[in-house]
Design brief:
The structure holds 2 protein chains of 2 kinds. Chain A has a single domain, classed as Rossmann fold, CATH 3.40.50.300. Helices cover about 35% and strands about 30% of the residues of chain A. Chain A has 7 helices and 10 strands. In chain A, α3 crosses α4, α3 packs parallel to α5 and α5 packs parallel to α6. The longest helix of chain A is centred in the last third of the chain and has 18 residues. Chain B is about 55% helix and about 20% strand. Classes of the chains: A alpha/beta, B alpha+beta.
């Protein structure tokens, strides 16, 4: 399987006043296309920093990052924005839907940025809304939806542009068990359907069990890296440098 | 269009705050329009008054406005009939009226006072100017044989001379040769200029009486009244070429009061407008700053999804644009309603300083002012949004997403 995300010796240190906090220490990791990767670890272990780095919303102090074979760290801010626009989707723990936009408009938003013409945009939004089972809720505002429905809207928003990579930060944290299970199934299904790689920060055992790779971070280093839990075509082992 | 729709929805997000900002913008807009409209009404009234008083163009002897006469009518126009005829040939000229300025003493036999007089062509003046006649009538063009000359007395001068209609008075003045001359006159009417100081001194006589008193065939000035004030410059250029040996002044050069008021009001309303613009600026800036702060996480989300900073900025600018447009349109409606109300209410303003006659309070509707005010207020709203949102979009995405 082709490597989609490749991190080499990624380090990041935060400076809080006179204190320095090493968030990531020489992390190396390879993730293949259409894999589901679970990132877990205690609070402050560096999960979010690793996700932010992979999602190009934070830059490491050192190391190498290639996405789809292209180096990312030497790019300008505008170029990184364009990569995020076209190749990366985000699912947030608190859904982060725009409250004044309907479910349809929230999902349509990333396509408006790409400049896709009206008919194609509508086709794609309708299709993904059907996939996530929200066709009945097109005109509902986020606050008129349940937590599970909101997360499905967020999922659809992340996937509607058919990105290479989806960054999901605790996507099931605010959901009840039944809804969480449904969301996990949905992610698996969409990953298979669109060939999208999911990088998921999670504490949810059900989630980690159903991912292709399980990475546990401790103190900014990869502590455990379980491969091939659900697939035969595992990637080379990553490590903490 | 979608972006404008989102902007509109965002404006409705916090309705009370948006409404307050829109109301402040509307009040600012209407205040500028009403203040500016009142200034325009005043300018127009004064302009009409000034052009009625002096005409649009005044032709005089070369030294008339700059020199000091050694004797009466030293700088008068001797060939005035010829000049008048040539001036009247210009297609833009409606009337040309001669005037004589003189001064001297007026007496009722018991009491003597100083007067300032204007020798006028009764028929021409009655066409060109409006006189507030309190008693009696305006001067007649045709005087009966062997009848005393007629005068029109200022209200307070008449009071001072204890004169009424038909009273006989004597005018004294120095002739062009320096001799003292007197002439008996009868009061035909009593008028008011609206300026108490003038009413104490001013009187009108006809041109022949003034010439007889001064013992001169000359007149002081020729006043051209045009069909359209806007033609003043064109006609002025022609007259300059036609009468190179005479001095030519346009109405604005002689309307000191008009120029003074325009300068004063421009500064007054300019400062008022600036204060209003500053209030609107801070109001919209405050609103947009709160909006940006409240939506920090949303900014982070949109940026994470691949929205360029300028696209996020555009969204906020569109919101400010919506606020600015609604506020300006509402301001126009308020100002329009107020203008209509004033036209029907008949409210009078108190007399200005130095005058004893008030005037109706009216506000002009000026399309140009409406457009300018709208552009300025919308521009200010947009600028406020740019300044407020700039800080928000500069924040690192990670920090914005972590904002609580």
């Amino acid at each position: 399987m082709d490597t989609l995300v490749s991190l080499r010796n990624i380090s990041k240190t935060y400076h809080l006043g006179k204190t320095t906090v090493p968030a990531l220490q020489h992390v190396s990791l390879d993730v293949g296309a259409s894999e589901l990767v679970a990132l877990s670890g205690p609070s402050g272990s560096g999960k979010s920093t690793l996700l932010n780095t992979c999602g190009l919303i934070d830059t490491p102090d050192e190391g190498e990052y290639t996405l789809g074979g292209e180096s990312m760290l030497s790019r300008t801010s505008k170029e990184l924005t364009m990569v995020r626009r076209n190749k990366i989707g985000f699912v947030f723990q608190s859904f982060n839907l725009v409250p004044v936009m309907t479910a349809y408009e929230n999902i349509e938003y990333p396509l408006l940025l790409t400049g896709l013409h009206d008919a194609e945009r509508k086709k794609r939004v309708d299709e993904i809304m059907n996939q996530v089972g929200l066709e009945q809720y097109q005109q509902q505002l986020p606050d008129q939806l349940s937590g599970g429905q909101r997360q499905r809207v967020a999922m659809a928003r992340a996937l509607v542009k058919q990105p290479m990579l989806v960054i999901a930060d605790e996507p099931t944290a605010n959901l009840d068990t039944q809804t969480a299970t449904h969301i996990i199934d949905l992610m698996k299904d969409l990953s298979r359907r669109y060939g999208t790689t999911f990088l998921i920060a999670t504490h949810d055992q059900r989630m980690t069990e159903r991912c292709d790779q399980k990475i546990i971070l401790v103190d900014g280093k990869i502590n455990t890296h379980d491969m091939n839990m659900t697939r035969d075509n595992a990637l080379d082992k990553g490590g903490n440098g | 269009m979608k972006w404008l729709l989102f902007a509109f929805k965002n404006v409705l997000r916090n309705r009370r705050r948006s409404l307050i900002t829109i109301i402040i913008t509307a009040i600012g807009s209407s205040a500028i329009l009403i203040g500016g409209g009142f200034a325009l009404f005043t300018y127009d009234g004064l302009k009409q008054g000034a052009t009625r008083a002096s005409g649009h163009l005044v032709v005089a002897h070369n030294e008339y406005f700059s020199g000091e006469e050694d004797s009466a009518m030293q700088y008068g126009l001797s060939n005035w009939k010829d000049i008048k005829q040539r001036m009247e040939q210009n297609e833009h000229v409606k009337w040309v009226i001669p005037r004589i300025q003189l001064s001297g003493l007026i007496s009722n036999g018991e009491k003597t006072a100083i007067y300032m007089a204007e020798g006028v062509d009764p028929e021409g003046e009655s066409r060109a100017r409006e006189f507030l006649i309190h008693k009696g009538e305006w001067l007649s063009s045709i005087s009966a044989e062997n009848e005393d000359a007629q005068i029109l007395l200022g209200k307070d001068l008449a009071k001072s001379m204890k004169a009424d209609i038909g009273s006989s008075l004597t005018l004294l003045s120095t002739t062009a040769d320096g001799a003292l001359n007197g002439i008996d006159v009868k009061v035909r009417g009593i008028f008011s200029t609206g300026v108490p100081e003038m009413d104490k001194r001013l009187l009108y006589v006809d041109i022949p009486t003034a010439q007889a008193l001064l013992d001169s065939e000359k007149i002081s000035t020729l006043h051209a009244y045009l069909n359209d004030t806007d033609d003043t410059e064109i006609v002025s250029d022609k007259f300059h070429a036609q009468f190179p040996n005479n001095t030519l002044k346009n109405w604005e050069e002689l309307a000191f009061y008009y120029v003074g008021v325009v300068n004063l009001y421009n500064r007054l309303f300019g400062v008022l407008g600036l204060i209003i613009v500053i209030i609107v600026f801070f109001s919209v800036t405050n609103t947009m700053s709160m909006v940006v702060r409240e939506r920090t996480r949303e900014i982070g989300t949109l940026a994470a999804m691949g929205t360029l900073p300028r696209e996020i900025l555009r969204n906020f600018v569109l919101e400010a644009l919506v606020i600015g447009i609604i506020g300006s349109v509402l301001g126009m409606a308020i100002a329009g309603g107020f203008i209509v109300f004033l036209e029907n209410a008949g409210i009078m303003m108190p007399p200005p300083p130095g005058r004893n006659v008030g005037y109706p309070l009216l506000v002009y509707f000026s399309g140009q002012l409406f457009v300018l005010t709208t552009i300025v207020l919308i521009g200010i709203s947009v600028l406020s949004a740019l300044l407020a949102a700039r800080k928000g979009i500069r924040q690192p995405i990670v920090d914005a997403l972590a904002h609580v």
